[in-house]
Amino acid sequence: MKKAVWSGAVAAAVVLLGSSSAFAQQTANASIAVTANVNAKAKLTLSVAAINFADADPDLTPVFTSAPVTVDVKARTSAGGSVTVTVLASGDLTSGTDTIPVNTLTWTAAGAGFAATGANDATTAQTLGLWTNSGNHNGSQTLSLPNLWSYKTGTYTATLNYTLTAP
Amino acid sequence: MAAGRVPAAQTSNATLNAAINSVARLSLSSAALTFPDADPDTVPSIQASQGPITVTAKARTSPNGTVTLTIRAGDQLRSGLNTIPEANITWVATGGGFSNGTLSATTAQAVATWTGSGVHTGTQTFFFRNLWSYATGTYTLTMTYTLSAA
Fold first, then answer.
1. Which domain holds residue B130?
2. CB spacing of B135 vs A34 below 8 angstroms
3. What is the residue extent of each domain of chain A?
4. What is the CATH number of domain A41-165?
């Protein structure tokens, strides 16, 4: 009988010891490797696709001036990489065989990184904007053309090609 | 049975001990998460290619004990010297006890909380904020999940 009581006491002790550690905090871990790919990109948006200078009296309007053209530049490049916007004219302003030199078509620009002034060229692309690193850039460009009595009548046209480069 | 004999009877007790200890087990449906490149204008928030990650948490704890699942980034997203804040990774969760959140490298963020023992399953769909301002590169980090059963 004495032996039976002793056995019962041992069993109770085991249960109590077990309960003291049974609810110790347990943790489990797992991990996920994350990869994000960021590639080079360039996006250039102009607010207009055409600029028209209406005929005017040279004495009253000595210079044709366009409305500001909004230039929106978005680029992703490497750290420290250069982002440039250049403009290259297709040629002089022409009307049949008559021409007006395209380098008289000048601009003023506003916005961080934009060249404040410039003149178009048909042989060498002219820098309109220059920045470093990825990002968004907004500015405006206003084009001007002298209105001279010496011009022959006609409808003169030229195309300005804008190029955004983000290496 | 012979007449006049009393049948023998004996009683014996056995003590059964069943040890039910705290256990925590966590499994994820994927060990990798990839965000593909995309145009920030058309895809401002990129969903991970793997789609929803299924999270299964099994825990034994004390009655009314708290079971928590947290996630923590090892660092910012890094590509060489270039970094993108890990907070640009967020998730949307489904499942009882699961919650939406934003990744952090400094503080473990709660993914789910439950009370008592049980098996819980949910999903996390991860998104990467896609900005023009990022430098090009392949950015990586490691996310660590911790399931705790108190």
1. 23-149
2. no
3. 41-165
4. 2.60.40
